[in-house]
């Protein structure tokens, strides 16, 4: 736990900021254009990390099955996962809770957004389960996953229309590409692979919504709902019980 804990905390702090970054960037881009530029940034960051570490030669040592695995994993995440996630943020408020505290009436204002949010969670879980079974080095498999995924994203975006850049949107997408996708994925996988008990480390990810609420309130100006505080309080309690 001690070896993986610093990686996990560093990762959580960055991931906590990206919900606010999503909403701000979506003021300038639609969700597909945001995904295009952020994915391009992530691929570039991962490639540069391989250059700096002198590991480019390892990219060509993958077998045919490894490329097929990366194509499948890349389709799950970033491609499918971020299509669902970014569309969710385009529909919903960043801090929304399904019932907005209306527990007894259980009315859902944006069923598509809620469905996409739930779907993205399932895709996320499947990706990490399958990815941990991939024996390749973290940096190598992530680069190929993201490269194949970006190719799929580029095809979808360019068929629709060529993305039109604007400075605020590009800056936001670059931030997302670095701190949501690129280096943070690498850091999180390092944390899981260094952990003696991956379950305990993985549970720390549930701190992200708690911290995200603060950034969303400060940077985006969305109010923090009382129901959100109660729900996140239960999550934190569960994490404490798990770690004890």
Description:
Pfam families: EamA. InterPro entries: EamA_dom, EmrE-like. It comes from candidate division WOR-3 bacterium. With 244 residues, this protein is mainly alpha-helical. It has one domain. It is 75% helix and 0% strand. The two termini are 12 Å apart.
Summarize the structure.
Helices cover 75% and strands 0% of the residues. By secondary structure, it is mainly alpha-helical. It has one domain (5-243).
Helix content: over 70%
Count of folded domains: 1
The low-confidence parts are 97-107
Distance between the termini: 12 Å
Report the radius of gyration as a whole number of Å: 18 Å
Structural class: mainly alpha
From the spread of the alpha carbons, the general shape counts as globular
Mean pLDDT: 80
SSE arrangement, N to C: HHHHHHHHH
Strand content: under 5%
Domain EamA: 8-99, 112-243
Protein name: Permease
Transmembrane segments: 7-25, 31-52, 73-92, 112-130, 142-159, 171-189, 201-218, 224-243
Keywords: Membrane, Transmembrane, Transmembrane helix
């Amino acid at each position: 736990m001690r070896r993986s804990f610093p990686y996990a905390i560093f990762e959580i702090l960055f991931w906590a900021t990206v919900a606010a970054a999503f909403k701000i960037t979506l003021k300038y881009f639609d969700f597909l254009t945001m995904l295009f530029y952020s994915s391009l940034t992530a691929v570039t960051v991962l490639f540069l990390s391989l250059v700096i570490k002198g590991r480019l030669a390892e990219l060509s040592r993958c077998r045919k099955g490894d490329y097929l695995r990366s194509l499948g994993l890349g389709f799950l995440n970033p491609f499918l996962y971020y299509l669902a996630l970014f569309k969710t943020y385009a529909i919903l408020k960043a801090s929304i809770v399904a019932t907005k505290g209306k527990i007894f009436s259980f009315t859902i204002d944006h069923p598509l957004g809620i469905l996409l949010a739930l779907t993205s969670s399932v895709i996320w879980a499947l990706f990490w389960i399958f990815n941990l079974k991939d024996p390749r080095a973290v940096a190598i498999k992530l680069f190929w996953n993201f490269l194949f995924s970006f190719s799929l994203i580029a095809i979808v975006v360019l068929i629709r229309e060529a993305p039109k850049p604007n400075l605020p949107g590009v800056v936001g997408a670059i931030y997302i590409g670095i701190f949501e996708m690129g280096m943070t994925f690498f850091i999180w996988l390092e944390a899981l692979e260094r952990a003696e008990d991956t379950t305990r480390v993985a549970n720390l990810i549930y701190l992200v919504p708690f911290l995200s609420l603060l950034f969303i309130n400060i940077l985006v100006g969305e109010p923090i709902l009382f129901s959100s505080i109660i729900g996140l309080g239960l999550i934190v309690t569960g994490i404490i019980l798990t770690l004890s």
